[in-house]
Each structure stands twice: as structure tokens, then as C-alpha cells.
Amino acid sequence: MIAPTQMKKPSNWQDFEKLCKLLWGEIWDCEDTIKQHGRQGQNQHGVDVYAYVEKYKGYCGIQCKGKDDYTNAELTEAEIEDEIEKALTFEPELKLLVFATTANKDAKIESYIRKKDIENRNKSLFAVDIASWEDIVDHLERYRTTYNWYVNNCQFKEATDVTVSFDGEEEVVIYPEYVRTTYHYVYQEQNPLALDFMATLKQINAITTHSGISPWNRTIRVDKRWCKLRIQIENTGSTVIKTPKLQVFFRDEDIEDISDRFSYCNDPHINETARAQINVGRDAKREVFQVYDTGVEYRPKESVFVQKDSRLFTISIIPREGKKEIPLIWRFLCEDYQKDGFLTVVIEPRIEEITKTIEVESEANLKPDEVVLEAKIEET
């Protein structure tokens, strides 16, 4: 027997909903008549599973709420209010609505459920109850038919499954590069010729800064804060996966920019027809699409994953200054299957220390040292 503390939560909402149907079929003694309500995309009126239950002399419903461990997601009071309102429209009227959730037990939410239960009973409406994951595990220990089904079919069965990693690892370290410049002011009496030279130099710098082009040569500026992430998807189940896609997200407060590393050819030295052909070819090979401000979507061209097969792609990010660790949140989608998870990006900035001496013309212009941290920019 699996210890309750070792009982894994269902890896997808389909398995969880089916688990609830079988389990409450046993609890309510209605295995042959309990049903899942409608199909995905239809209005379910706050009810995912329902049955006529002799004990309650009427219909009872279950609202299944799968929650993601990686975000520590919990059932909220707003969700409860919303689903109760929807369940009021279920026909015929319910006698009981159970919130079944993979979230862990929460005393605050259980107290709120009791409050809503009393409110409904006082209005002659359906009773309200909750079963958190620990409660569901307790039920499984008692109801052996569902327990055996869950252990044999969801705990250990080889089915559709994937792992997402940083080239095999759940954590990766990146090294954005910065320059920390200390400006040190010194008094230096200058002769008129030196002042004229400095004035001319400032004019030249102003011209080149305004135009973005050096009068002597062309340069490419490379921001060294950009860091590459190699992301791997592996088919670890026993089924063949077809036409999958992987969505990768960051929180806005964690990154300054993200790139799918895709660009079109805009070389003015190539004629328009040739550029169009080049860009059609690039589009045909494209697999990574930046579809959000803080996320990308990967759609592999080789879209059939056999068992143990894997795919690898690369994106780049600029983490926000001061961040030490950020989550990469991912969602894998294919026909009849989805899975969510997260990976960890550890940030260890590399800082180049520079001191610049600034000569001032009078002692009155002397200032304390100033320290400025900026992106390291390399010109090639």
C-alpha cells in the first residue's frame, strides 16, 4: 500500500476529474449513475460531476479544482463565490455542492466554506462542503475500488508525460554582465590650448552620438546582459505525442526583455526579391514565436515525439537588475493532454569595475565620487 504522504496528485485535470467521479461514486453509492457534466467548453453551471444521491434525496454536484504546486496556488474565496453562483443555475436544484481540490488543507478556506454552507442552508439552498487533497487521500484509503484504480492507472501507469528542463537540469545559472564605473573628480588647472582641444572633442562626440554612426567606421553594439537559455522537452511517457507546443512565461517583475532569437533579412545590399525569398525560408523554419511581452511559444517542426524523443530550443533574456533567482513557468499542450511546471533561473551578475578620473577647472566643481552601474556594451 502507498503511504498517504506518498500519494501523488494527478498530473492533469482529466485524471483528477475522473478520480472525483469514481471516488464519489463509491462514497455516494451511485457508481452506475454518477456522470461527468457535459464536455470541455460547455457551460457547466458550476458542476463538473453530478449524480442523484439517495442519501440526500436529490442531485449532488462536485466542482473539481486542480491547483498547481509550483505556484502554491490555493482555492480562493472569490472562486468559491463564483462557483456557488453558477451552481444556483444547475437544473434540477442541487442538494449538495462539494469543492474537490488538489490544493492542500487551508483552515481559512474551510472556515469560509462552513460560513457559505450556513448561509445557503438558511436560504433553503444546497449545502456546501470541501474536500482538500488530504481529505481525498483519506477517502481513497477507505474506498478500495477507486484506490486500486488510481494506483494502477494514475500513479504508476505509463501514459502521456513529458519533462521540461534546461538541457536536462531543473536549474540553470546565468551571468549577465555589467560595468560599475566610479567617477573620481580632481582639480586640474588647464592651459587654453587644452581647453580648446576638449571643446572640439565634445563637439565630435555630440555628432557621433546624435547620428549613431562613427565618422571613421561602423560599429555594432552588443548588450552583454543578454543570457541564453537552452530548453529541452522530452517524451517520458509511453504514448506518441503529436503536434505539441510549449509556452514559456516569466513574470514582468523578473525580466527586462526576452527574445525568440528570430529576425528577418533587411540587408539593403540584397535586392527586394532575394530578401523576400530569404525571409520566406526563415519563416518556414521558424519554431519559436515571441507571442507575449514576457513569454514565447515553441512549436517544433518535427512535431511527432516518439517515446524517449526530445527537442531543444534556445531563447534569450535580460533579467531585471537586483534579481537573484527567478522562475521560468512552462505549459505543455497537445491533444487531450496538458502539463504545467516551472524551472529556476539563478542569476550571478559579472561586474567589471572601472574608475574614471574627471578633471574640473576649479575647486568649487569638485564632487564626491559617483558610482554608476550600467549594462556592459561591447562594440564590434
Shape: elongated
Strand order, sheet with most strands? 7-19-18-12-15-14
Structural class label? alpha+beta
- Radius of gyration, in Å, reads 31 Å
What level of helicity do the residues show?
25-40%
Could you report the average pLDDT, rounded to the nearest whole number? 86
Q: What oligomeric state do the depicted chains represent?
A: single chain
Q: Give the SSE string.
A: HEEEHEHEHHEEEHEEEEEHEEEEEEEEE
Q: Which regions contain 5 or more consecutive residues with pLDDT less than 50?
A: 1-5, 210-216
Question: Given the structure, what is the number of helices?
Answer: 7
Strands, count: 22
Largest sheet: 6 strands, mixed
**Could you tell me how far the N terminus lies from the C terminus, measured between alpha carbons in angstroms?**
64 Å
In percent terms, what proportion of residues is strand?
35-45%
